[in-house]
């Protein structure tokens, strides 16, 4: 059994969201939803995180940041795109500075639709991400981490 | 205390301390969550976190970092062994300081601004609590005329009767040592946003797990000192002492959840004022009676 699924630590980054989804992400931490039940902790540190929660689309300014956070996270890691903006660009898709969804920059594992995504949906997405996390962990045992990393880079 | 009991003490500490420390951390998180009206993680959550960290890909900023962090763990364990073997309290304090310095050096070696600010704050915290820890050892000496832990637990008098001030002072700085609010300046278990994660910002995976393990070992012997205040030759005293330890830990959780983080000036000033007033006055009184 893999322990990654029992203690997923999250880093939350706001690509260029309207803050609607961010509020919902924070709502997950409140006593009402309390994600710490699942051992989920909101860390502010990519080096401690297992799950990368991105809200909002990527724009010219935030590409670098998203890439850097992703690269700093140790394997196994999972990216969850929260909200329609993060999934495809959403309402901001046509803006001159917006590239589109998060998957333009880093490989996304779980898409959580909604504008704004409801806390229940976000928790659902993260729990779905846990399955992917366990798979990636199992794959890590099969091949050395370096090879996995090179592959992930190619994918991006 | 003879050699056999010392060895039993050391072996029991090596095996049981991480289990007890981890459980304590789990109960801590559960109680904190309940205080905040949340359900909270399972009691075994700290162990899940620990094993997960071991499973992660190892990333280190530089080569020496792991060396320092491992030294931190080793010296924390040595400190605990000295204590549970019934050894010298002064030696205990010196190895404890050395262990803390290794953690600070590890954080400095990473060259990250967050870790460096965290390390600087850790040094300030050490300045804040160190005098009171020394006063505690001297207080035990003035009661039992020995720095030995084994002499304290077998003495005929209960430490706290003669050392109430020093007890209060020690519980005060325990807040700093357990990394609880309002004194969790250098690194904390919650509120991760300020300074990112302070001291441990650059540590991930196995290295972070080692720090967590050391923290569990450390918490146990810190509570061991609280135990010393109550334990004496009476048969019932170990039970009373364990109850007091748990009560003190609960008090720390309560304080943690009720106060926001203070500035470092307050940490140093208040802990020195407490050490000088209750601690020092307590010693003066002991000196004259
Ligand atoms: S999906 Fe809706 S709520 Fe979320 S960031 Fe985009 S516009 Fe805002």
Protein described:
The complex is a heterodimer of chains A (156) and B (289). Chain A is an alpha/beta fold and 156 residues long. Chain A has a single domain (3-155), classed as Rossmann fold (3-Layer(aba) Sandwich). In chain A, 38% of the residues lie in helices and 17% in strands. Chain A contains five helices and seven strands. In chain A, the strands form two sheets. A five-stranded parallel β-sheet of chain A has the order 2-1-3-5-7, sandwiched between helices. In chain A, strand 1 (9-14), helix 1 (20-27) and strand 2 form a beta-alpha-beta unit. The two termini of chain A are 29 Å apart. The model of chain A has no long low-confidence stretch (mean pLDDT 85). Chain B is an all-alpha fold and 289 residues long. Chain B has one domain (3-288). Chain B is built from eleven helices and no strands. In chain B, helix 1 (3-35) packs across helix 3 (63-84), helix 3 (63-84) packs parallel to helix 9 and helix 8 (164-177) packs antiparallel against helix 9. Chain B is globular, with a radius of gyration of 19 Å. Chain B starts with a helix and ends with a helix. The model of chain B has no long low-confidence stretch (mean pLDDT 87). Chain A binds chain B through residues 2-4, 6-7, 31, 34, 36-39, 41-45, 47-48, 50, 74-76, 137, 140, 145, and chain B through 29, 33, 36-42, 45, 48-49, 51-52, 54-59, 192-193, 196-197, 200-205, 208. Residues 17-18, 20-21, 55-56, 83-85, 90-91, 115-116 of chain A line the site of iron/sulfur cluster (SF4).
């Amino acid at each position: 059994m893999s322990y990654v699924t029992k203690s997923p630590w999250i880093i939350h980054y706001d690509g260029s969201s309207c803050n609607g989804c961010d509020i919902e992400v924070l709502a997950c931490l409140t006593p009402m939803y309390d994600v710490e039940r699942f051992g989920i902790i909101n860390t502010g540190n990519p080096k401690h995180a297992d799950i990368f929660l991105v809200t909002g689309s990527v724009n010219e300014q935030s590409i670098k940041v998203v890439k850097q956070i992703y690269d700093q996270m140790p394997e196994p890691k999972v990216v969850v795109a929260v909200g329609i903006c993060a999934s495809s660009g959403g309402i901001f898709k046509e803006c001159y500075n917006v590239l589109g969804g998060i998957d333009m920059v880093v490989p996304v594992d779980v898409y959580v639709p909604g504008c704004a995504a409801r806390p229940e949906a976000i928790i659902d997405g993260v729990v779905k991400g846990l399955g992917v996390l366990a798979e990636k962990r199992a794959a890590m045992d099969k091949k050395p981490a370096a090879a996995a990393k090179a592959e992930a880079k190619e994918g991006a | 205390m003879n050699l056999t009991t010392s060895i039993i003490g050391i072996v029991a500490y090596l095996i049981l301390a991480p289990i007890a420390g981890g459980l304590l951390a789990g109960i801590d998180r559960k109680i904190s969550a309940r205080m905040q009206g949340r359900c909270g993680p399972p009691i075994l959550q700290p162990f899940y976190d620990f094993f997960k960290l071991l499973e992660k890909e190892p990333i280190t900023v530089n080569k020496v970092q792991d060396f320092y962090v491992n030294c931190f763990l080793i010296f924390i364990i040595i400190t605990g062994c000295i204590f549970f073997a019934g050894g010298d309290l002064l030696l205990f304090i010196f190895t404890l300081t050395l262990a803390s310095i290794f953690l600070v050096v590890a954080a400095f070696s990473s060259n990250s601004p967050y870790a460096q600010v965290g390390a600087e704050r850790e040094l300030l915290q050490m300045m804040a609590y160190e005098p009171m820890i020394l006063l505690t050892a001297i207080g035990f000496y003035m009661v039992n005329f020995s720095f030995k832990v084994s002499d304290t637990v077998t003495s005929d008098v209960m430490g706290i009767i003669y050392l109430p001030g020093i007890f209060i002072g020690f519980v005060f700085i325990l807040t700093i040592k357990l990394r609880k609010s309002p004194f969790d300046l250098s690194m904390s278990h919650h509120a991760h946003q300020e300074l990112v994660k302070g001291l441990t910002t650059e540590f991930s995976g196995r290295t972070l797990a080692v720090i967590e393990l050391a923290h569990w070992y450390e918490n146990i012997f810190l509570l061991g000192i609280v135990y010393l205040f109550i334990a004496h030759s009476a048969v019932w005293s170990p039970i009373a002492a364990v109850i007091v330890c748990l009560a003190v830990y609960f008090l720390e959780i309560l304080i943690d959840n009720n106060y926001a983080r203070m500035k470092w000036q307050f940490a140093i000033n208040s802990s020195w004022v407490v050490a000088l007033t209750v601690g020092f006055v307590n010693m003066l009184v002991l000196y004259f009676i």
